[in-house]
Every structure is written in structure tokens, then in C-alpha cells.
Amino acid sequence: MSKDYQQVLLDVRRSLRRFPPGMPEEQREGLQEELIDIILLILARNPQLHYYQGYHDIVVTFLLVVGEKLATSLVEKLSTHHLRDFMDPTMDNTKHILNYLMPIIDQVNPDLHDFMQSAEVGTIFALSWLITWFGHVLSDFRHVVRLYDFFLACHPLMPIYFAAVIVLYREQEVLDCDCDMASVHHLLSQIPQDLPYETLISRAGDLFVQFPPSELAREAAAQQQAEKTAASTFKDFELASAQQRPDMVLRQRFRGLLRPEERTKDVLTKPRTNRFVKLAVMGLTVALGAAALAVVKSALEWAPKFQLQLFP
């Protein structure tokens, strides 16, 4: 009876590449049925949410790791918090979040920013990155779940910071392109599969501390529009975001290491300060990895047998 059933069915049928290679067809089909059930159940419970293509890429990641029951609870919570802006009736808030990408790049590398502006490439190349948490564009499941660990522990805008560090990392490739929309868009829409993920995660954390969303809002859009996003209107989520450990630790380390008159200067140009910030991120990375392992181990006690193949 769901108005989204046909679209969900089509998207799930096209999601074969998201399942482990070599999985028996019968087992995969069973998981696809569970995937459809999870999505439709969450939408039925939350009529204010609107399905978008790419949502199934996020749900299937949780399904493969923790099974149907726990995935339903986790994704439902995410859908009313981290993913809320993607599930509006229109894409206005999604476009607004994408608008943070270029200001971040401009703060770090104005030459690259100006080149991309001249090419008129826009930000649409990063749309699938953002709304699927990179699940749709990365082929290695290990990299996908590592990023999910990071995004779960951070502010809901962290995926756009990670998108920015990917573009910054590929600076020379971009500048070597012809300065036109087609060439630059084609290059950026193809993510290399051998990226140094831990280095990029660390740098995304650095950039979030140095250029928090509140400082970029004016450049991303008018403040009135910024206030309409779920990240700034959910009061309980604002409190949770302010107190979440990765953001809090990074901010405290950053503020504690600099004298007051130095706090507005570029942390990325100060090797000593940057080392401490990166050590904080590395420490958090280890903690997140341990927590993820604990979740997986507990999930395996009741999860379907196929999970034993994913986590031997």
C-alpha cells in the first residue's frame, strides 16, 4: 500500500553490487526482501519522511553489518537526525548542504576553488557521495563501513567535509584538466578506490575544527536558509552534536593548544598544532574501531549466518 513501494523495489533490485561477491542467490534475495521491509516500515512509521534514491544504499550497509532488527532501529534514528535534510519533499536543503563544499575548498586552496568556479562544474558531482555516505561509489565494503563509523560519531555535515578533502587531495588532477564543466565533472565523479582513507578522515576532522559550519554559513547561503536545515532546527540533536566526543575533543585540543590571539590563524599551517589534532583524531579512530568491533561481535550472536562470511 506504500506510495514508495515501486521505486523502492526498483532501487533494491538494482543494488546487486552492494552484496558480498559469491553470496548464494537465495540468500541475497532474502536480504533484498528484508531491505525493502526495513525501508517501508521506517517510512510508514514516519510519514514526514520522504524516500529518496540512494537511501537504500545506506540501509543495506546497516543490514549487512547488524541484521534486520538492529538495522531498522539504527536507520530510523538516523533518518530523523543525520539524514533528515535528505528526506524532505524537495531537495532544497540537500542543495544547501552541497553549497558548503566550495567555501571549504576556498578556505584551503583558493586557486583550486577559482579553477572549479571558472569551469562552472558546480557541486552536483558530489550529490551521490553525500546522500549515500559514499556507499554508492566505493566498491570496497571495508572502506564504506570505516566511513560510516566516522560519520556516525560526528556532526551531520561531516560527509561534506570529507567530500571537500577528496577534491583537495586530487588538486593536481583537477588543475591538469581542461577548464570546462564536462572535463572536471567527469574527473571528480569518478572516485579513485585507493584513496588514503585514514589520512583523509584525519584531515576532514582538522577542517571541521578550523572552519566549522557556523563560519561557512554566510558563504554557503543566506542565514535564513541555513536555519531551515534539520541540523540546526532539531534542538535535541544540536545538544547531542555539541557534546559528541569527536567534535568536542577536536575543539578542545584546538582551543587549548593555541593562545587566544592565535586561535583565528590557520591550524593547517602550524605543524606542531596539527600533529596534536591529528593525534586526537587517530585516538578517536582507534576507539571507534573498537566500538564497531564490539557491536559486530554482539550482533553476530543472533545475526544471519551469512554475516559469519563477512566477519570471519
Written account of the structure:
With 312 residues, this protein is mainly α. It is 66% helix and 0% strand. Helix 2 (25-45) packs across helix 3 (55-79), helix 12 (197-210) crosses helix 17 (245-257) and helix 17 (245-257) packs antiparallel against helix 18 (271-299). The longest helix is centred in the C-terminal third of the chain and has 29 residues, at 271-299. It is globular. Keywords: GTPase activation, Membrane, Transmembrane, Transmembrane helix.
Detail the topology: elements first, then pairings:
Elements: H1 5-13, H2 25-45, H3 55-79, H4 92-98, H5 101-108, H6 110-119, H7 127-131, H8 141-152, H9 158-169, H10 171-175, H11 181-188, H12 197-210, H13 213-220, H14 223-226, H15 230-233, H16 235-243, H17 245-257, H18 271-299, H19 307-310
Helix pairs in contact: 1-2, 2-3, 5-6, 5-9, 9-12, 12-17, 12-18, 17-18
